[in-house]
């Protein structure tokens, strides 16, 4: 039996937000500029609305300006593109986030491609994805950035570690693999077509669940003492009615096997928002410096 320690992402994110708030205050004092984050929400998805509200609140608490645009589910693609173009040229806006997923009649790739890469605080524009891939300065996607911060804080160097990322999305899996590679880890990206996924996972010193399937990664898939980062945030029905959040990892089964594990909620989720604030400050600094 291994003693499993829980990684306090919520606490770490709070500390990070405090540090960012200090840096924002210094930046404002030095330049007279208040970093501004614009969030665009299309449609009425209640879960998205909660997330956008949390982001807005934490943006203000960090001393930045929060600009929210809510558009109806039926908005024309051209109208959304016009809004993004207006935000691109607005000097009070340093970061732009268009909440995903977008309704089916809108081409999300086209919207992301319209965002000025210098204001792309999600790091989803192909220019930022490409810059990350070739090792240039880039705005890096928030969730992967948060995962690597937690890993480095708890493990120190990741050099030589075997990291297995389960999930190959453009939002998490692929950029996370790039970041881990930059930290000199040996990186495997596993996915739905991977042969013998449990065996692949059991090789991992660092195992990352980023698929969005509730509790898919079982305790028996974890190497004793491994570090487990759970990116999944899945809402499931509770036995007695109501809902609860679970990750992609069967958290209870991982107890006594994993060395370190992030919980859901309170793990990676809060880090995502803290990293969004960090990216907004980074974008503001670069935009003001020219
Ligand atoms: N362009 C874009 N960028 C995003 O970064 C983005 C997006 N679209 N669409 C939706 C997803 C979802 N997402 C979350 C971030 C933090 C929490 C979070 O802080 N969760 C808390 C609490 C969750 C709760 O209690 O409801 C936790 O895990 O502890 C959740 C979800 C960012 N997303």
TrEMBL record:
Residues 141-286 form the Tetrahydrofolate dehydrogenase/cyclohydrolase NAD(P)-binding domain. InterPro entries: Aminoacid_DH-like_N_sf, NAD(P)-bd_dom_sf, THF_DH/CycHdrlase, THF_DH/CycHdrlase_cat_dom, THF_DH/CycHdrlase_CS, THF_DH/CycHdrlase_NAD-bd_dom. Gene3D superfamilies: Leucine Dehydrogenase, chain A, domain 1, NAD(P)-binding Rossmann-like Domain. GO terms for molecular function: methenyltetrahydrofolate cyclohydrolase activity; methylenetetrahydrofolate dehydrogenase (NADP+) activity. Its EC number is 1.5.1.5, 3.5.4.9. One of its GO terms (biological process) is purine nucleotide biosynthetic process. It catalyses: (6R)-5,10-methenyltetrahydrofolate + H2O = (6R)-10-formyltetrahydrofolate + H(+); (6R)-5,10-methylene-5,6,7,8-tetrahydrofolate + NADP(+) = (6R)-5,10-methenyltetrahydrofolate + NADPH. Catalyzes the oxidation of 5,10-methylenetetrahydrofolate to 5,10-methenyltetrahydrofolate and then the hydrolysis of 5,10-methenyltetrahydrofolate to 10-formyltetrahydrofolate. This is Bifunctional protein FolD. It comes from Ancylobacter defluvii.
């Amino acid at each position: 039996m291994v003693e499993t320690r829980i990684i306090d992402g919520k606490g770490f994110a709070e500390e990070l937000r405090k540090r960012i708030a200090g840096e924002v205050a210094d930046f404002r004092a030095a330049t007279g500029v208040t970093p501004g984050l614009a969030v665009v929400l299309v449609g009425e998805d209640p879960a998205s609305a909660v997330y956008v509200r949390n982001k807005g609140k934490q943006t203000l608490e960090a001393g930045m300006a929060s600009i929210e645009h809510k558009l109806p589910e039926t908005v024309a693609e051209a109208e959304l593109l016009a809004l993004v173009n207006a935000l691109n040229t607005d000097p009070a806006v340093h970061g732009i986030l268009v909440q995903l997923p977008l309704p089916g009649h809108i081409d999300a790739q086209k919207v992301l491609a319209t965002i000025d890469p210098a204001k792309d605080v999600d790091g989803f524009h192909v220019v930022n994805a490409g810059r990350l891939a070739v090792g240039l300065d880039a705005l890096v996607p928030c969730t992967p950035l948060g995962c690597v911060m937690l890993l480095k804080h708890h493990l120190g160097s990741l050099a030589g570690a075997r990291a297995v990322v389960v999930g190959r999305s453009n939002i998490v899996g692929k950029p996370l693999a790039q970041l881990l590679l930059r930290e000199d880890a040996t990186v495997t990206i596993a996915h739905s077509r991977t042969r013998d996924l449990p065996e692949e996972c059991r090789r991992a010193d660092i195992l990352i669940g980023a698929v969005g399937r509730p509790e898919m990664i079982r305790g028996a898939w974890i190497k004793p003492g491994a570090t487990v980062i759970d990116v999944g945030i899945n809402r499931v029905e509770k036995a007695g009615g109501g809902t609860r959040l679970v990750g992609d990892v069967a958290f209870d089964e991982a107890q006594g096997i994993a060395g370190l594990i992030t919980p859901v909620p309170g793990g990676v989720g809060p880090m995502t928002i803290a990293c969004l604030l960090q990216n907004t400050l980074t974008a503001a600094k670069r935009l003001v410096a020219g």
